Amino acid sequence: MSDATVTIDRYGVMGYPVTHSRSPVIHRLFALQTGQQMQYELLQVTAEKLETAVRQFQRTGGKGLNITVPHKRAALDLVDQVSERAATAGAVNTLTFRGSEIHGDNTDGIGLLRDLNVNLGFSLQGANILILGAGGATRGVVGPLLEMQPQALRIANRTVDKAQIIADHFDRYGPISACGFDEVPVSEPYDLVINATSAGLSGAVPPYPEAAISETTFCYDLSYGLNPTPFCTWARDQGAAKSVMGWGMLVEQAAESFEIWRGVRPDTAPVLKQMQINA
Ligand code: ATR
To answer: N or C: which end of the chain has fewer CB within 10 A?
Structure first.
């Protein structure tokens, strides 16, 4: 086959706003590393145009899409087949186009697990876990966290009802409960505190429960940035054992999507290193 006849498989990320997404860089590095012929585009799409944009991408030969904020729940309505983990999370972040069908999956939870277990050496089994926030990010990670058999998982949120709805939805999967920030029980130290609020995006530090942090607590922010996030700074100030931003989860969820699409698992370590250096 001559070069002129080679078609490059197209992928992309759809979100709004999406201009600051690192996904194109990560997928280009994966493609380079594994010798895959593919391109990955940044697609800024509003909620009203999501369905049209997804179907057009599919019609014009696109192979797969990542779906990001704020479309992860809405994209679930567009899929013909859904993985169990995406159905449980009630959200998809990975679409794969197979003929005329759309397959939906969610790689956020496994991305977090891999970062915690493999990259950071944190054991979730028997851990006492606190999640701050009860939005889409929390929904994506609660199921996989419960599968790792923690001792307990508590969700604390500014709006308690939203935390309770998630706890009710997931309580058949493991020991989960909900409360407000000012009701977090602190009789036992937390091994892991995860920030899944979007408060840091505006630089805000909500009244997180200070007593939940001890010198043995591992703190993880699902957000990431050029500088330590407000949550990471707050956690360090409370004396946490460690506070980590979500770069590893970002790279690991991308690797999982890449494997779904290409059947090849990239080595995440060099890509993660590069992302953090260039952060
Ligand atoms: P995502 O998909 O990133 O999770 P989301 O579904 O809009 O986004 O959820 C945002 C989460 O951050 C919610 O838990 C929200 O709290 P409420 O449910 O009370 O709205 C939380 N959040 C955002 N800004 C916050 C702030 N300034 N203080 C406390 N919580 C905040």
So the answer is: N
